[in-house]
Design goal:
Elements (H helix, E strand, L loop, with lengths): L1 E5 L8 H12 L37 E7 L14 H25 L5 E7 L4 H7 L3 H4 L3 E3 L4 H10 L7 E3 L14 E3 L4 H16 L3 E6 L6 H15 L4 E6 L18 E5 L4 H14 L5 E5 L11 H6 L2 E5 L8 H14 L5 H19 L10 E2 L4 E2 L1 E4 L3 E4 L3 E6 L2 E4 L2
Parallel strand pairs: 1-3, 2-3, 2-4, 4-5, 5-6, 6-15, 7-8, 7-9, 9-10, 10-11
Antiparallel strand pairs: 11-16, 12-13, 14-15, 16-17
Length: 414
Amino acid sequence: MISAQNHLLQLSGNKWLLFFITVLILGACSPKLHPVSAPVKNADKPVEKPAEKAPAKKPEAKASVISLILPMGLEHLKPKSTYTSAGLTKANMSVEYYQGFKLALDSLAASGANFKLQLYDSKDEAATSHSLGFNPKIQSSDLIVGPVFPDGMKMFAAVLTNPKAPILSPLSPAAPANINSNNLITVIPPLEYHAWGAAEFIYNKIKPKKVFILRSGFSQEYDYVLSFKKAMDSLSNKKVKVIATIITRGQLAVLLPQLSKTDRNVFVVPATDQAFLGVTLRSLDTLNKHYPIVLFGHPSWEKFTFLKADVLQRLKTHITSTDKVNYKAENTIVFLRNYRKAYHVEPTDFAIKGFDEGLYFGRQMLDGTLTSIEKSDYTGLHNEFHFIKKPGLGWVNTHVNILMYTNFELKQVE
């Protein structure tokens, strides 16, 4: 059974969105059905039978309380107030995540589980998130999901210095060190674990003697480079040499004396700047005609439409990813069918993440293992969960997928 409480502001204005959200919240209540017996006709000569004891009614399981804190922004439903484009995107994201999360709880409730779902609007304001941290109903929850964005989470966690429940960061890959809460659960792996995943794959599968990191010089690459070098040094006991070089205008000639014409030359490019990538990848493509190259890129490349698939394929480009859905898998097909039936729309990435997280953490609550999730791995629709417990930082999911450009599409290789 799922009971839902809506702690959002009841506002007028955009009637369609208000109606949609109202239906969404009211639809969260899924009471158990009790069969009604049909009337029995009296027989002409009733046969007396000894009265049978009615079976004892099974007590209903204690409800596990989950508080969702999402940036719905319902204040924009007031008269003469409208959503900005960014605000509407966040509101849609919230609805999609909620729908996926609730569908997961519904599937658990069908087997007898009992959840109480409380929904709060953070308005995507750090000050509102801070205020919600003082709410006793949230403080007494068994699981808190959100706030979604790092600034709000930081303000919220600062209030709950000793929370009863774990605090789940559902969609942000922000490093947990920025939040500094021992009860935090970071589901989306931060960038350092992408670097570690790439280093581990290179060391175990390619086994090079050296790795070249091509940098643009922008400071945002520093964390990735540092994490990659630390991982490779640890994995190889510093036997694999990591050579980091700042490249300008695609000039790679300085590296030629260190390249091999027979063994695979491994290049890591942690850049996201379009101009730098355009020039550098063209230079690598030219170099690849004489020196075999295997390229590893930044996880953001998966979303970049300006990168040329034929070049990426020739360079045997790999990227790390935490969001790869196999739409041919049986579990995915079942989810899609159930989601369409429940909401009459196609699920988005946020809905899929909501479903995976709702199912995994709902099960952990039922099993009483919510505070030992480092012992329970999970294969979801979009990624796997493999948590480690870090003192002062809570639990962090470290699993990333390795994808490679093959036949002009990204395919999972590990």
